[in-house]
């Protein structure tokens, strides 16, 4: 069963709103001085707990199940990330272009031929408002976790890019 969702992030806002057929069904929220992100989609409630200094990893906690860790995200060189769920399923996050206007989550198979693209994301508008679409072809209880993780990873990389650009401006006066 395919799921089509829409997401919106206003300029200077730390919250992303997720809608389905015009009705809000989820959100991602990051507090001002916090690296962690609280997320919800349908009945799934998660916290993305960012740990580490230079090389970050993320533990994903299920808030509805006593903060049980249901997955981890590992970041790799070249703007790539891997989501490993507690059941052993592995999903790879990949950007489709350098501007990060399109990205995907791929369920890893035994061989490369067995890999399956399960969530496709697109950024449809970017100026004062970032917004885009998510299409998921994943009929399992972990679908909401995978969709939220893919959106979280993109925002993580965007935030790191802005921090690096700010550091370059401060260091070189560019």
The largest beta-sheet arranges its strands as: 1-2-3-4-5-6-7-8-9-10-11-12
Task: Estimate percent helicity.
Answer: 10-25%
Strand content: over 45%
Principal-axes geometry comes out as: globular
Largest β-sheet summary: 12 strands, antiparallel, barrel
Low-confidence stretches: none
Structurally, how many domains make up the residues?
1
Rg, alpha carbons: 16 Å
- Mean pLDDT score: 86
H/E series, N to C? EEEEEEEEEEEEH
Q: Quickly count the helices.
A: 1
SSE arrangement:
Blueprint: E1 3-10, E2 15-20, E3 23-30, E4 37-41, E5 44-51, E6 57-62, E7 68-76, E8 80-85, E9 90-95, E10 102-107, E11 116-126, E12 129-136, H1 143-172
Antiparallel strand pairs: 1-2, 1-12, 2-3, 3-4, 4-5, 5-6, 6-7, 7-8, 8-9, 9-10, 10-11, 11-12
């Amino acid at each position: 069963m395919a799921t089509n969702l829409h997401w919106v992030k206003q300029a200077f806002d730390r919250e992303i709103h997720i809608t389905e057929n015009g009705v809000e069904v989820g959100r991602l929220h990051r507090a001002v001085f916090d690296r962690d992100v609280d997320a919800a989609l349908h009945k799934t409630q998660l916290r993305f707990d960012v740990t580490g200094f230079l090389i970050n990893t993320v533990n994903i906690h299920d808030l509805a199940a006593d903060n049980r860790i249901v997955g981890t995200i590992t970041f790799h060189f070249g703007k790539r990330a891997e989501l490993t769920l507690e059941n052993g399923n592995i999903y790879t996050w990949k950007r489709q272009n350098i501007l990060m206007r399109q990205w995907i989550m791929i369920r890893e198979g035994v061989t490369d031929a067995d890999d399956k693209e399960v969530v496709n994301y697109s950024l449809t508008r970017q100026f004062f408002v970032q917004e885009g679409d998510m299409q998921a072809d994943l009929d399992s209880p972990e679908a909401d976790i995978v969709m939220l993780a893919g959106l979280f990873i993109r925002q993580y990389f965007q935030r790191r890019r802005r921090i690096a650009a700010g550091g370059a401006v401060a260091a070189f006066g560019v």
